Amino acid sequence: MFGTDPWWLVVIKAVFCFAFAMLTVLFSIVWERKVVAWMQLRIGPNRHGPWGMLQSLADGVKLMLKEDVVVSGADKVVYILAPIVSAIPAFMAFAVIPFGPADNEISVFGTRTPMQLTDLPVGVLYVLAVASVGIYGIVLAGWSSGSTYPLLGGLRSTAQMISYEIAMGVAFASVFLYSHSMSTSQIVSSQQSRWYILLLPVSFLIYIVSMVGETNRAPFDLPEAEGELVGGFNTEYSSIKFALFMLAEYVNMVTVSAIATTLFLGGWRAPWPISTVWAGANHGWWPLLWFTIKVQLLLFLFIWLRGTLPRMRYDQFMKLGWKVLIPVSVVWLMLVASVRALRNENYNFQSVLLYVGGAVLALVLLSLVVDVFRDRGRKKAEAERKLQPEERFDPMAGGFPVPPLPGQTLPPVPRRRPRGERQLVSTAENTNGEEGDDA
């Protein structure tokens, strides 16, 4: 079904994918400012256009008319290429996103074509690869600026993307096991009877958390922590280059929302009960409407999180990625693989539940036993350490202050007296001194 379109139709479909992403970004910026203002009991943008709907367009014009400053100490070639490298891959992922069924072709100037630019047998891997390229723009922007704070922001973003892409990839693997394909159109087709958000709820939750961390959005906006990094990797950028970074962030939001819609929310399929009541809900141009509504609902989730949750600390964020999301996603993948293997061997549901549930229960009991013995050993070690004489630690023994090693404690700091008490003591000392002189 793909690869037979004439060249002019391929160009039209590519322009449509670009226009869909851009229009969704323009709408999302206004929507975000409106929703956050509503949450904070403010008015929000209401000057440009009806109900302030042209505010994002006005912001883009303002940024393009600002002075384009290039830092004198920057690597100018990399400094200019970094925003481009960050923005272009965000649009490329839409090449394999299905906006409608492949077997229900629409007519464009008399030519029948599916509502998808192209498809690949490994379409989801292509999306992951393209999304990973965008991090190079952030890293190169932080390095090429020749400043400390942008470099810190770029390094933070690198660690963040690597951490959360692992959990995201493992969450995708569960979808591959159920759909028997990595093709985006085939994954949507396999959700005809039931969406994967119902079959794989843990994978969906892991992906939701990972996509927020992948796009550097609050509460995971650590590369742009203004209070800590003075703006992050884009501190030294202005004008159109700064606008490209903002554009890349919002296009990435649209991209990950479209992927979540495709993999877990039935893609272009109409929601229940519309699909059962109306036979033509998934034909013609209607699938584009259902797809857009689902994407906008996920974008609202981004906005809701930004207006609700405070920013996490960096150590909490990395702990969530490495110690929670990745182990949970791996264990869940093992359970899904076990269920699929038993189902392929024609085991009934009760047998599958018995085998898998029994294995999970055994692991939980084993972990409880390990925790009990570990806590007992820790308490015993602490009790023995308390019985031993405490070693005095002098932080200035070497001539300069050093932090204590594990097991060493700093000497108690003498507490300062309250201000009023200090004045009374000094007055009493002066009085005693004067009486002594008189005597």
From TrEMBL:
Residues 401-413 have a biased composition (Pro residues). It comes from the Bacteria. The keyword Thylakoid does not apply. The keyword NAD applies. Coiled coil: none annotated. Residues 383-439 are annotated as: Disordered. GO terms for molecular function: oxidoreductase activity. Its EC number is 7.1.1.-. Keywords: Cell membrane, Membrane, NAD, Oxidoreductase, Quinone, Translocase, Transmembrane, Transmembrane helix, Ubiquinone. It is a multi-pass membrane protein. PANTHER family: NADH DEHYDROGENASE SUBUNIT 1, NADH-UBIQUINONE OXIDOREDUCTASE CHAIN 1. This is NADH-quinone oxidoreductase subunit H. The gene is nuoH.
